[in-house]
Amino acid sequence: MALDELSKFREEYRNGSLSVQEMNHNPFAMFARWFQDAVSASVREPNAMSLATATPDGRPSVRMVLLKNADEQGFVFYTNYNSRKAGEISDSGFASVLFFWQELERQVRIEGKVEKVSAEESDAYFSERPFESRIGAIISPQSQVIPGREFIERGMDALRSSSSEFLLKRPEYWGGYRIIPETFEFWQGRENRLHDRFQYKRMPNGWVIHRLAP
């Protein structure tokens, strides 16, 4: 279908529904349940999430990253601390992520403050990465202009040939961030675009749940 026919795309969502009675009082437990549903449904990369950040003057940017840890402390991903996303996080202190599990016709949105994880936590994760993924993190000046692909390929080859897998350490410019949620939104697609949407909002005495209009 051509781009000038995009208005003809139609998809009806019929896989499920969501009621307030199904909502766990704890949004982290609710997320864990839906994440396991996505794994059981063989969703490809269920931990892939769109990360949205913004500049101080409100110019947004978004990209895909991978969730690498989740608990009631927050949601953790890893990146280069000199990247564009890192600069925007440093400026604002906030970010939003979106999980979309098409096979289940579900999405989850999370918004909150962002902080760096400890150096020890970043070291532990870095040591678990495949050898060549660690090399890639070291040699890539993420988000910066480079003269060509040969630049990173030469860097990859040089470090691969000169380094031992057991001596390769995490660089200080690479590590994790933790998103500390202030709001969650759970979305279940429904027919006629009358989707079910529930928002959790963090309050001083706990989480409050609201149904939102589709």
Short structural summary:
This protein has helices at residues 27-40, 84-92, 119-128, 131-139, 149-162, and strands at residues 48-54, 60-66, 69-71, 74-80, 94-101, 106-116, 174-188, 196-203, 206-212.
Description:
By secondary structure, the protein is of the alpha+beta class. The chain has one domain: Roll (Pnp Oxidase, Chain A). It has helices at 27-40, 84-92, 119-128, 131-139, 149-162; strands spanning 48-54, 60-66, 69-71, 74-80, 94-101, 106-116, 174-188, 196-203, 206-212. Strands 1, 2, 3, 4, 5, 6, 7, 8 and 9 form a nine-stranded antiparallel sheet that branches. The model has no long low-confidence stretch (mean pLDDT 95).
Summarize the topology.
Layout: H1 27-40, E1 48-54, E2 60-66, E3 69-71, E4 74-80, H2 84-92, E5 94-101, E6 106-116, H3 119-128, H4 131-139, H5 149-162, E7 174-188, E8 196-203, E9 206-212
Antiparallel strand pairs: 1-2, 1-5, 3-4, 4-7, 5-6, 6-7, 7-8, 8-9
Which sheet architecture does the biggest sheet show? 9 strands, antiparallel
| Broad CATH class | Mainly Beta
Spell out the CATH superfamily: Electron Transport, Fmn-binding Protein, Chain A
- One letter per element, helices H and strands E, the order comes to HEEEEHEEHHHEEE
Low-confidence stretches: none
| Individual helix count | 5
- The shape, in one word, is globular
By DSSP, the count of extended strands is: 9
Average predicted confidence as pLDDT: 95
SS class:
alpha+beta
For the terminal residues, how far apart are their CA atoms?
28 Å
CATH fold field value: Pnp Oxidase, Chain A
Q: Per DSSP, what share of the residues sits in E-state strands of 2 or more residues? A: 25-35%
Total count of domains: 1
If you compute it from the alpha carbons, what radius of gyration comes out, rounded to the nearest whole angstrom? 20 Å
